[in-house]
Design the sequence.
C-alpha cells in the first residue's frame, strides 16, 4: 500500500531561481527552531508594518500562565499588506480571476488597483453604517469577488469578519451570528452552484428570525443572480446602492499585531464547531510565508485553490496568503462536476493555471469517473499540485500525480487545521522527495512530536498522538468568547503542548503520516489501527471509489472493524466482492485488520467541506442511530438515513 521504497524525487527541472532547495530547507529549519526569535524577526520583514515590532514572541503553553503573543508591539493593516503595497510595482497585475458557475458566463479579471478601489469603497460604506474597529461582521456570500472584497474591507477598518459558508442553513447562520454578536451581514440575493440557485438572502431572513440574532442592524445584499428577494427596510440595503458612490480610497485602521482579524468556525467533523479566533500580524505573516514556500510561488503563476472562502483554506490560501504575496488567485464559483466532470481541468486550461490546490474528496470523486474526462484536456500549464483536508490515500495520490499531473508535477500534501492558521506539515516541492500519503516534514519553526497516552514524547520511527511543542505565528489565539475552552481543548491533554487531535506515524526518514483523528483509532485485540490506513487499503482495490472505516464494540476483540464502501461508477455490489475485499485488506495490512462488517454505501456522510464524518458512522456501526450528535454541518442528511436503514444489526 504505502510501499516504503516508493520515494518520488523532486522532478529534475522543477526548481526555479527562488525555489527552496533541500540544503536550504535543512539549514533554515534548524535555524528556525534553534533561534526562533531571530528567524521570525527576520521573516516579519516580508510584511509592511506601520510600526515594526521590536518583540518577536511571548509564549507560554502552561495553562496556569498561558499566553500566545507574536510581534506584540507591532502595528500593521492586513488590507494594506494585501493591496496598497502592491500598487506601485504591480497595480495592473491580475489579483483575482473569477470563474463563474456557468462556463458561458464571461470570467472576470480584477487587477490589484481595481481590487484596492473596491475594498476601499466597501470599507467607507461600512464605516458610514457605523461599523468600526472590533465590531463583528458576518459574511455569507457565494464564491464571487465580493467575498474577498468583504473580508479585506473589514480588515481595512479593523472589523472582525466571520465568514459563514454559503451552503449553510438558516440555523447554522443564526448559531454563528449569535455566538459572535455580528452587527452587520453581507450576503447576496442568491448563489449559483452546479446550475442551481441557493437562496442566500432568504436564508439570512430566516436566520434573523431565530433567537440571539438581534445584534444585527444591517444586511447588505449584493445583486448577483438578480433573483427576487424580500427587502426589509431599513434593515436591508442593496450593496451597490450603498457602496458604488463611495470614494475609492480609504484610510486604513492601524491595528496592533495581536488585534483580531477574524473568527472562523471549524468544520464540525468531530463535534460542535469551535469559533477559532485569529489575530493580525502573526496570522498574515504565516499565511503569506507558507503560501510562497509551499507552493514555490513565482511571479507569473496562476494559482487556484478550489476551497470555499467559508473554510480556513479559503481564508489563508485564496485570499490572505496569495494577495499578501501579490499573486494571481482564481476564485471559482462552481463545483467539480458541472456542467461535466472535466470542469476543473477545463478551468485549468482556460486560465493557464500553474498551481492547483484541492481536497482528497474531490480527487476521489473525479478518479471514480476514470481518466478520459481528464485526458481530453491539456493541463500543460500545471507545474505543482496540492492536497488538503484529509489524509490522501496513496491510490488517489498516484492518480493525481500520474493522470492529472502527467507525472510531471510534484504534489504537496499539506497537513494543517483551522486552528493552525496555515500549513504546518508539508513537503516544500523543490526540497523534499515525496511519498504518497505522507505530509512529510514540518514547515519552518514547527516542532511536531508524537506522544503516548501519558504524554511521554516518543522518539524515532513510531506512532502516537500528534502534538506541537512550541508556538508558530499563525496559531489561533482563542475560542471566541470562551478562552478557557481554548486552553481546555488544546493544552490540557498534554500539558505544555498543543494537542492536534490527530494520530500520526513517523517513519525512518522522519516523515510524518497522519493516521486519522485520535478518537477514530481502532483498537483490535490490543492492536491500534488508524482509519486512514484501512481506508487506503480498501481504496486500493480497483472497484472501490471511497471507503470510511470505524470501530464498534466487539465482545472478544474489544473493538471490531466496520467499513463503509462506495464502489466506482458501473461496479456491482455482490457478496463475492464483499469477501474479496475482506481478503484484500487482510493481505494489504494483516489479519488483525480484517473488516468484521462491510456495508455498501451509495454515499458517505461528509461535512460541507467534504470531510468524512466518522463520528456519525461510528454511531450507526454501534447500532445507536438515535445518538448521532450535531449534524448541522452535514452536507447531505439523506445519506445518513440510507445508511441507518441498511446498517448491520447484531443478533
Ligand atoms: P472539527 O475540528 O470541528 O471537528 P475539522 O477538524 O474537520 O472539524 P478543520 O480545521 O477544517 O476542521 O480540519 C482540520 C483537520 O483535517 C485536521 O485535524 C486533520 O484531521 C485533517 N487534515 C487536514 N489536512 C490534512 C492532510 N493533508 N492530511 C491528513 N489530514 C488532514
Ligand atoms: Mg478539528
Sequence:
Amino acid at each position: 500500500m504505502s510501499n516504503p521504497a516508493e520515494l518520488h524525487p523532486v522532478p529534475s527541472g522543477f526548481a526555479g531561481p527562488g525555489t527552496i532547495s533541500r540544503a536550504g530547507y535543512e539549514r533554515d529549519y534548524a535555524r528556525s527552531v534553534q533561534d526562533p526569535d531571530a528567524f521570525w524577526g527576520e521573516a516579519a520583514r516580508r510584511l509592511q508594518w506601520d510600526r515594526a515590532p521590536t518583540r518577536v514572541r511571548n509564549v507560554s503553553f502552561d495553562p496556569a500562565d498561558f499566553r500566545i503573543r507574536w510581534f506584540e508591539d507591532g502595528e500593521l493593516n492586513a488590507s494594506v499588506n494585501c493591496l496598497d503595497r502592491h500598487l506601485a510595482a504591480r497595480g495592473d497585475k491580475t489579483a483575482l480571476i473569477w470563474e463563474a458557475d456557468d462556463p458561458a458566463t464571461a470570467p472576470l479579471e480584477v487587477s490589484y488597483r481595481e481590487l484596492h478601489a473596491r475594498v476601499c469603497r466597501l470599507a467607507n460604506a461600512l464605516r458610514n453604517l457605523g461599523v468600526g474597529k472590533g465590531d463583528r461582521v458576518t459574511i455569507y456570500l457565494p464564491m464571487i469577488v465580493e467575498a474577498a472584497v468583504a473580508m479585506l474591507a473589514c480588515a481595512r477598518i479593523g472589523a472582525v469578519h466571520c465568514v459563514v459558508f454559503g451552503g449553510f442553513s438558516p440555523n447554522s447562520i443564526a448559531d454563528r451570528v449569535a455566538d459572535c454578536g455580528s452587527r452587520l451581514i453581507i450576503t447576496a440575493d442568491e448563489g449559483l452552484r452546479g446550475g442551481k440557485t441557493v437562496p442566500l438572502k432568504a436564508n439570512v431572513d430566516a436566520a434573523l428570525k431565530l433567537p440571539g440574532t438581534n445584534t444585527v442592524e444591517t444586511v447588505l445584499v449584493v445583486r448577483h443572480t438578480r433573483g427576487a428577494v424580500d427587502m426589509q427596510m431599513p434593515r436591508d440595503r442593496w450593496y451597490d446602492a450603498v457602496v458604488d458612490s463611495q470614494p475609492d480610497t480609504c484610510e486604513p485602521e492601524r491595528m496592533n499585531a495581536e488585534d483580531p482579524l477574524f473568527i472562523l468556525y471549524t468544520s464540525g467533523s468531530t463535534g460542535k464547531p469551535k469559533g477559532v479566533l485569529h489575530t493580525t500580524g502573526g496570522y498574515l505573516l504565516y499565511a503569506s510565508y507558507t503560501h510562497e514556500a509551499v507552493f514555490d510561488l513565482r511571479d507569473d503563476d496562476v494559482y487556484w485553490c478550489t476551497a470555499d472562502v467559508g473554510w480556513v483554506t479559503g481564508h489563508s490560501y485564496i485570499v490572505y496568503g496569495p494577495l499578501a504575496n501579490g499573486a494571481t488567485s482564481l476564485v471559482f464559483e462552481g463545483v467539480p462536476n458541472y456542467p461535466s466532470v472535466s470542469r476543473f481541468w477545463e478551468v485549468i486550461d482556460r486560465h493557464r493555471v500553474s498551481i492547483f490546490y484541492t481536497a482528497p474528496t474531490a480527487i476521489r470523486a473525479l478518479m471514480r469517473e476514470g481518466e478520459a474526462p481528464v485526458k481530453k484536456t491539456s493541463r500543460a500549464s500545471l507545474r505543482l499540485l496540492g492536497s488538503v483536508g484529509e489524509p490522501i490515500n496513496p491510490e488517489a495520490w498516484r492518480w493525481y500525480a500520474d493522470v492529472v499531473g502527467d507525472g510531471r508535477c510534484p504534489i504537496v500534501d499539506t497537513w494543517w487545521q483551522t486552528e493552525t492558521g496555515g500549513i504546518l506539515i508539508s513537503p516544500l516541492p523543490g526540497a523534499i522527495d515525496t511519498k504518497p500519503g505522507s505530509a512529510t516534514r514540518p514547515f519552518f519553526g514547527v516542532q511536531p512530536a508524537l506522544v503516548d497516552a501519558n504524554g511521554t514524547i516518543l522518539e524515532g520511527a513510531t506512532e502516537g498522538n500528534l502534538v506541537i511543542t512550541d508556538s508558530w505565528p499563525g496559531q489561533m489565539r482563542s475560542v471566541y468568547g470562551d478562552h478557557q475552552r481554548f486552553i481546555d481543548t488544546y493544552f490540557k491533554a498534554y500539558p505544555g503542548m498543543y494537542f492536534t487531535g490527530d494520530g500520526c506515524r513517523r517513519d525512518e526518514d522522519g516523515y510524518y503520516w497522519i493516521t486519522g483523528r485520535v478518537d477514530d483509532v481502532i483498537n483490535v485485540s490490543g492492536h491500534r489501527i488508524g482509519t486512514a490506513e484501512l481506508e487506503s487499503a480498501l481504496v486500493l482495490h480497483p472497484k472501490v471509489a471511497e471507503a470510511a472505516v470505524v470501530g464498534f464494540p466487539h465482545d472478544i476483540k474489544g473493538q471490531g472493524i466496520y467499513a463503509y464502501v462506495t464502489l466506482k461508477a458501473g461496479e456491482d455490489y455482490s457478496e463475492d466482492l464483499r469477501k474479496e475485499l475482506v481478503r484484500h485488506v487482510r493481505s494489504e495490512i494483516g489479519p488483525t485488520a480484517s473488516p468484521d462488517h462491510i456495508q455498501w454505501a451509495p454515499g458517505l456522510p461528509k461535512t460541507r467541506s467534504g470531510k468524512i464524518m466518522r463520528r456519525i458512522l461510528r454511531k450507526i456501526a454501534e447500532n445507536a442511530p438515535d445518538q448521532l450528535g450535531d449534524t448541522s454541518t452535514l452536507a447531505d442528511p439523506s445519506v445518513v438515513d440510507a445508511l441507518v436503514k441498511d446498517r448491520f444489526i447484531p443478533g
Summary: The mean pLDDT is 96. The pocket of magnesium ion (ligand 2) is lined by residues 266, 270, 417, 501 (CB under 6 Å). Residues 525-646 form a domain with the GMP Synthetase; Chain A, domain 3 fold (CATH 3.30.300.30).
